[in-house]
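Risk register update: the risk of archive-format incompatibility is retired. Evidence:
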Amino acid sequence: MRLLSFELKKIIFSKKFLYILLGIVVVIALLMARNIVFESSIQKEARERIDELLEFNFANSNIHQAVLEADPEDEEEEELQRLNSAMINILYEVRELQAPNRFEERLKLETEYYSIAEEYKQKGGDHLLSYQEISHSLALNEKLLESSIPPEHENYSRALPNFIKQVVDLFINLGAIIIILLLIGEIMSSEFENRSINLLFTQPLKRTHIITSKLLASIILYVVTTVFLLVVTLIIGYVFGYKGFFDYPIVIEVNQQVETVTIIEYLRLAITLVSVSIFLIISLCLLFSIFFKYTLVTLFSVLGALLIGYVLTEFVSWAPLAWFNPFQYVLPKEMILFQNGREWWQGIPVTLLLTAVFYIVARQMVKTSRVD
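Archived output:
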């Protein structure tokens, strides 16, 4: 316990840890500032999107009209023209309903538009929106209407739950990896570089306790940093944002079926999966530190292993691999949003098992480790 306490104090009271915490505060504050600055452009962006769809629908209308002029008896083309005209009329109505207090009317019209667009595509018409975009938009709008929740911009919302999701998305997409490598990247290798490992080896304690204390200290530091990030996000979001809804729907795919989860459920999955990945990275970092004994070599080796694992995840589509690939949670957002042919939890057992294996191997290596 004394060794664990010493390891924690050594990092917590260091300037590096303070700078990392300050960096987290600055990034979160800048993210909120960005949302405030771009808030006025959200409605403009929505209008531009409507204008883009109108332009495309008008172009389709001209095509249909030309075909019908050449063959007035073409019933399929006539049906496409009817559907296309219906979409144009709906877009004009949506453009007049941008006021926040009329969101339910707007959502109903948008839902009708997406339904017609889907039918239009199924009958051979061309559209800007893909089937995936249409199905996701329909699922989101229907859930928002069912719960009477106003829609929020995915990237620029100041609603507290949505803002927390924006921060967590940054955290799980490389943010957590960068923070943990900055925090503990040299926790073991620096002992070899500074030759302070000699002093530790002469102390009346087991060598395996050294690696155990560093592992536990790294995990505790990760937990403390994650809690700090969430608390700062809550404070900034509460002060500069607005209440929002924690049951706001997030659209996911499960076995090719579109479903929704609440923001709370999404955040729980995101923190769980990124934590599993971070535990693996910590054990890998400790193992490579003992093997290479130099910080830069250790960090590049860890990053190289993560890169290879990520490439394996992205380019090998063999379904059973989800049970054996410990690197699938390096960037876990896609794992949550697209659960097609795999369950979000499938890789957790092998990842935790490999974490334990790396730790055990590191314990064995430290017993015979020498300073060059």
